[in-house]
Amino acid sequence: MTRTCGIPFEHTEDNALQASVEQRTMIFDQSETIKQACAQITLGDLPRAGEIISQNYPFTPVTKSGRTYTPRQMTKVFMRDGFIDRYKGTRLVYPPALRVISKYLPEIFPFHKNGRMDLGHVAYWELFPTIDHVIPVSRAGIDAEENWVCCSMLTNGIKSNWTLEQLQWKLLSPGDLTDWDGMINWFVQQVKADESLLLDGYIKNWFGAAKEILNL
Predict the structure, then answer these.
(1) CA 190 to chain centre
(2) N or C: which end of the chain has fewer CB within 10 A?
(3) How far apart are CA 98 and CA 148, in angstroms?
(4) Strand partners, 133
(5) Which residues contact 113 (CB under 8 A, 6 or more apart)?
(6) How distant, in Å, are the alpha carbons of 6, 112, 169 from that of 149?
(7) Per-residue pLDDT tens for 20-44?
(8) What pTM did the predictor assign?
(9) What is the pLDDT of residue 191?
(10) Chain centroid to CA 120: how far?
């Protein structure tokens, strides 16, 4: 258990999640499936070729979940995971902290509401945390906290609906909040020092979530 800011965070769900991921590891090389199917096609046995593919490499339609999360839900997961990308191990920054910087330095650190990289700073992709389903919902993963992890927008875009096995990635351990807190405490203190920031609805909503999760 990690205790930071008076909040206990249990990491037992990470063990269960890792076990679930490992159970889905595809040891069988799928190129071998295609090789075997091709051999059966050459022999003129299309039913057998279809059977091989259906058994070992079945077609599974992939659809996007379109899930959205509240600032409170995201803050809770970011804190649990220590503000790191659980796939890459890199440090991430609390979303509204980045927005505050853009408020003060709009030309040097621009923000674009639609994430356009030609109009917004790349930090909003590289350092901006989001929630990802380790086992994609489109691949029978559950939409619940035990299947949620923190990762950057950049990593999330790369992972998309792929499994860790397909990408040859691993789920890393949570970060240590005593080492890196994602600038969440700086964000709270800065908003308290400059309450005009609360005129921005985005910052106000995240400020409320941060205070609740930090028990302030």
Answers:
(1) 26
(2) N
(3) 22
(4) 148
(5) none
(6) 22, 25, 14
(7) 444 444 445 778 888 898 999 999 9
(8) 0.75
(9) 97
(10) 21
